[in-house]
Amino acid sequence: MNTNLDLSKIQAYSTALASKLSNGFFPGKEVINGEQLLSFTSVQQLNLFIVKTLFERWKDELQKLRSPYFNYEAQEVQEALNGFMNTLSKNIAISKESFHPLLQKAIADVVVISIAPTEYIQQEFNASPVALRSNLLDKFKYHKVHETIFKRFHEQLSSIPKTEVTQNEINVIISSLPISTPEEEAKAKELLDGLYALLQFDIKEFNPQTLKTSFQQEASRINIPFGEEIKQAATLESIAVQKKPAEKTVFQQKTGDQQLTINDSLKGSHESSIADRFSKSKIEDIKSSIPLNLKFLFINILFDGNSVDYNTALNEIEQEESIEKVKDLLNRNYSEKYKWANHTEEADEFLKIIERKFY
Predict the structure, then answer these.
(1) H/E run at residue 33
(2) What is the pLDDT of residue 212?
(3) What is the pTM of this model?
């Protein structure tokens, strides 16, 4: 899909801004730690993408540990690896030289996702012939822009009943994505404004012909060669027919016209999630048991970037005597305030970790 983006200009800008931010942070410091990543810039989406890039590269490094001589799927090995990952996430220490490429990629991703979200999706697929569906779903937990597009993408991707997804299936999904709402377009502009405040740029250099908007996305679909629309629609219909109905999360379940509350969470759910990768054993301290990548997601998605409320909530949870009282607390003080009904997967993951405190 041609979006008219000048990726070389985006690369040059992201390199320049990464140098500026790195040079401003590292004098007098040898490394940047996990806590400092949380508030590295005023642009929370950029901070999220730094962590996203860090953990993706970390996953690549962990894959190198695998050996044909050992069973890495054994339960005790998985538990040991999960504990190892959890411990490492609390001991992040990145030098300037190693941090710069992470920061540079994160900046470029923010520019691309703001201007051309479908281009961003294609780049995340990395032009591979196939990709693991679970890995792709994980990738799209780190964005807070163009929600309509990414919500539909997540739904369509989740509906594919296979562990691997092909490039053609991704392209079919992209061709069917809706356009962003005017409010979402404004939010994307605010995101670019945040970058502009850090280092000025000319948006026309990134997209010399015309800025990618929802109207261009619609036009690109109108220009699909005759017959291709039918093929694409048939492919999506085939995917939908094969889809196994996913068990509804707590916020999607309904009894009559009344939506169930967070108190009904964790009942009968067998779907895997990020939290399932970690030990099911009892934990003593919730805060120290949440890995940094999940901490970023919870703060930025469930608490809308408000780290004070996040820490307050965890402190309040630690004082409760049962999981039932915890759920009442979250319903009363946070669920409605931060619209957790729009972020059911993250809310369920948060609760699954908290529940381990009360085993």
Answers:
(1) strand 31-33
(2) 40
(3) 0.71
